[in-house]
Records
---
Amino acid sequence: MTLTREQRTFAILVTFVVVIIIAVALLFTTIVTVKAGHVGVYNEFGVVSDIEMQPGLHFKAPWAGVEQMSVQTKEYTMTFTEGEGAVKGKDTISALTKEGLTVDLDITILYKLQPDRANVIYKTVGKSYVSVIVRPQIRTVIREVVAKYEAKQLYSEDREAVALEIFTKLEPELSSRGIILERVLLRHIQLPLQLTSSIEQKLVAEQEAERMQFVLQKEHQEAQRKIIEAGGIKNSTMIVQEGLAKAPEYLTYLWLQKLENHESVVYIMEGEMGLPIFKNIDG
């Protein structure tokens, strides 16, 4: 069958368009953009590259795959508050204290992937490394640490020391697997109800004892002040008495000085013709 000139031209145009489409499609399969805060793990026929792709535009073989893994800081929470933790429903950590009591802990850790170890995690664990590595390690370390403390210590200011010890033990365990531990937050510790009530009563009693100690100390200081004040008055009186013994006229002077401003004072002139003169007679 002989094609006309117009048919040949149309066939060539269609072929050209198809080739362009295929070329563009192939081009897009060779370009990958690694998002900010991520690294790309290059996988070609099951062989994972030892070098991670950094954020930005990269070229790859059309048949190769690139798995993007986040290296941003993430949180993992285990709590008895439903809907708040990483696992749906209640996800508390129960541990035994030094005296054998069961306590429930509410904890959050901040972590992130080590960028140059993402390929190792992908090869050995996969993207589910949180449930495979992070979660079991948290539970194991917490139970080891809590077993060293009594329940009343967990309820007091020693809770910060517990969180620090958990971090110290957990950090090298995660670091060896390519995970950076940034912080451990021990948000709440739930003790048995009876023990909680007993500890609270003890804390109230201790605070009351400290308050009474302060009151007694204040009263003692006030007593000391009064003793010092009495001593000063005594010394002052002795000085006045000594002065009067040496000059009795001084007492008369003080008496006249007081009478000067008294309303009932009457002045009498000296001599035989003296007449009484009343103070404020014009009033």
---
Amino acid sequence: MRVALRTQQIIAYESGVTNTVDPLAGSYYVEALTNEMEEKAMEYIQKIDDMGGVIPAIEKGFFQREIADSAYRYQREIEEKKRIIVGLNEYTIEEECPIELLRVDPKVEEEQVARLQKLKRERDNRKVKEVLEKLHYAAQKDENLMPTIIEAVKAYATLGEIMDVLRKVYGEYKELILI
């Protein structure tokens, strides 16, 4: 973080780069990078189109595989020092940085459960049931759900109860895992 901060400070305060609207305008290098990025993006889009579009690509696990492969290549490049990340695999500062773990007091969970139970006891459960049924119907009819969700929240339906209704209608996404 310190390296990133110092780099930004040097660029902002010492180089004068912030004194102009577009300091790299007309730069051959930046233009070449932009053209290369555009060309690769268009190749990628064509590859997806050749698969039949985004939906078939998702169904074939294309995006998941591409992301996993890219993350693997990136990490290997860092570990083999083919890609230098200042402060991570080069130019590091050897110092102890104690990491304090956030420990949540178990009483917090007990208090939250008690508040939820109290809410469910004190609210108008008939109204909650009614509005959740209305939400179920609206979801089945593919209507705008926002007004009904707002009504459910105002009746003190919980997020879990609202999501359970929507899961019953729409199901739950299960990521396709291809190896």
---
Amino acid sequence: MTTQPQAQTRAQTWFITGASSGFGMAFARYALDRGYNVVATARTPAKLAALAEVAPERVLLSRLDVTAAGEAEAAIAAAIARFGRIDALINNAGYGIIGAVEETPEAEFRAQMETNFFGALAVTRAALPQLRRQRAGAIVNITSMGGQMSFAGAGAYSASKFALEGMSEALALELAPFGIKVLAVEPGAFRTGFAADALKFMPAMEAYHDTMGGTRDFMHAMHGTQLGDPAKAARAIEHALAAAKTPLRLQLGADAIDAIRQHGETLLADLATWEAVGRDTQVEECGGRDGR
């Protein structure tokens, strides 16, 4: 049976990017309900006003466009000045692109990487000196089930999330000696405004109708039908961070768990099938097949 995490003696501080809607707003409200301090950031701070009304003494609203030079450093500095530390940095800001690789212009690929990967990188780098000084804290990168696997039409989005996963894996090893945890969260479909407000659809090419048509239809229709509860996602994240051994990756939602498991089983099956071919690539030593 899953138990509710126990409240801490000292109020934690959660720093959340993209807090004006969706997961970010849900995480902020959950943290406030738990009695924590919240640094809620967004490109438009006015959209965060409702959070400040909940507990003004425990909320700091900061403008943060994760793609704008210097804004991450300023927001982190403001957070430290107000609350003294950061216990959980949650890199949540991002959006999605739906389109086949050929349908997606290079500029759109680059913009996707700028927000979903380089934006998270900028905020992480800005926070690391403080986290190292504390010798404690956590970095939570909200990736996706699309950070472990991909599907037709998600090339740009998955590329950005795969990159974030790779950085997370390296960070976990680099920061463990400082007592800093790293958690990559891989949600499936959750009932946020992501499908309605944070997806860009690329112009369709007839050549990809058969492979992309179903994806487009599904993404257009999924808003409001997702089975995942964002508040429960926040609870699961806190539970994982409080564990004696926090996992590197946390899949959220039955759809994510099932799809990633199937993807992993396919990977292992292919590895076994082609292992002999892959191993037969070593440099031949003396006396090898060339007779020398």
---
Amino acid sequence: MLPQAVEFARRGWAAVVLMRRGYGSSGGGWAEDYGACAHPNYVAAGAASAADLHAAIASLGSRPDIDTSRVIGVGVSAGGFATVALAADPPAGLVAAINFAGGRGSLHEHEVCRVGRLVDAYRFFGKRARIPMLWVYAENDHFFAPQLAKKFKEAFTGGGANVEFISAPAFGSDGHNLFSPGGISAWSGLVDAFLQRQGLVMRKTPLPPVPRPALAAPAMLSTNGRKAFETYLMSPPHKAFALSRDGHFGWQSGQRTTELASGGALKFCRQSAKICEVVFVDDVAISK
């Protein structure tokens, strides 16, 4: 989430990426278990998410460089659902929240455990949420399509909640990935307009973008490969890019070590080619 966080920092916000319990290498067990698919408890899962966000915001409030009197929450997918739950139980300084493709219980594309219960959870949270929210769902979201998202919105706003709903144009092969580095040009304007309407513009002009690493794309990459390389360049460390002689590639970012990133990049590259080698690690070209 580093590139996404940078976009908010460019606009004057102190941008903090939170790892909720049970995700990645965070300590403790997974706190957001909603139970079996046949009878999920989405309300309990959302409440657990909100509890983690409450704790994180309270901890940040002890820092001299953080002003928790004006906080916006932003989340995607399960994090979007967590943001909805937070809006229903807001800390004192939460002034707005943004939900990208939020939902829970999607085991596979176009398959959600007990959709009715998920809609009921949105209805439950909507009776309590009053801060302004922006919801963005892309037309080709394979997990929570706009038709389903509109049911979430109807249930949520039925109790008086304040939501600006945007059905965004299709993004890539799966719009569930709209809130991504590659989608910045598509979603940042939606966020800017929403924050402006809420009087939450920190800077009239965003700070300049972080300079892109001065690395040229390998000549044998296809058009798709060059697009992937552009995304690689803006992705966070530790990262690695692997390549075969005939232009097949694989990459991975956001790893704890360069060794893990290199191993992941090689694994993905070898799904299409027998012989691959790592050609970039973080922002350095590897000499062979």
